[in-house]
Amino acid sequence: MAVIGLVWLFATATLTYAAGEKLTTTPAKAPAAVATPRPTLVVPDIRGQAFVFAKGILADGGFGWRVNGSVQGYATNVVASQQPAPGTRVQDTGAPTLTLTMQRGTYPQDGTPENVSPYVGTAIVLTKSPSAPAKKLSPRTVSTRAKVVAKSTAKRVHAAAKPKRRVPRRKIHAARSRPPAFIVSGAPREPLNEIPLTVRAQRLNAWLTPSRRATASNQRYWLYQHAWIVAGAKFGWWHGAAALRLLIAVDRRVASQWGIGHESESVARRALAAVEAQAK
Prior knowledge:
- The protein is mainly α.
- It has 2 domains: 40-157, Trypsin Inhibitor V, Chain A, CATH 3.30.10.20; 172-279, no CATH class.
- It is 45% helix and 8% strand.
- The protein has a 3-stranded mixed sheet, with helices on one face.
- Helix 5 (197-207) packs antiparallel against helix 6 and helix 7 (240-258) runs antiparallel to helix 8.
């Protein structure tokens, strides 16, 4: 009996020690989360651009804006300066907000000024290298990048460009047969390498499907097309009144689907009245 008792005590002590060792074992540490860097955006050069075109460039690039100074953000005013400077690399914080200073354009300041972007802007955060301090761009580099951006922008929305050589003759003839509805002194000519205002309005109407949601990118696209059509019609471009009537119908659908667009419809209606009065 004594021997059996000793064996039982030894077995109990062994099990107790093993259980204690298992409970006091340090658990393995979970791997630390690695932060994902944000995408980088390059600030475009919109200096010297009509504000109606500058807004579209900023919206396409994912930027917001805020107008600073005594001259307000009317569509026909011109961007005099911008902060940050062209070519600056910033983090994509959602809609990095540029500060713009305007100067009066050569056309009347009609409508309502848009001194802030219609979507919520975010802070400007400059990009920095994780291993070295950020390098300051030289004036030559900034100037080169600004020229590249300005050149590509000008081809899209500013001066009229020549039709491409390999375009079929019937398309060239159609592009050249866009007589202005009326003449506005100093207004830019309709760029023939862009679709007519009526086609732009029709495509915008087709784009606004019942399933199209009011995301930030969709709102930027609609506002950009809206501003282009309104400005072109005021400049006297071909069939501007017809394009505005289509645009008003689109604005009504936007108000019905998204719950916004009432002010944009009012802007289009005022533009239509002005265009019809000029065309008489």
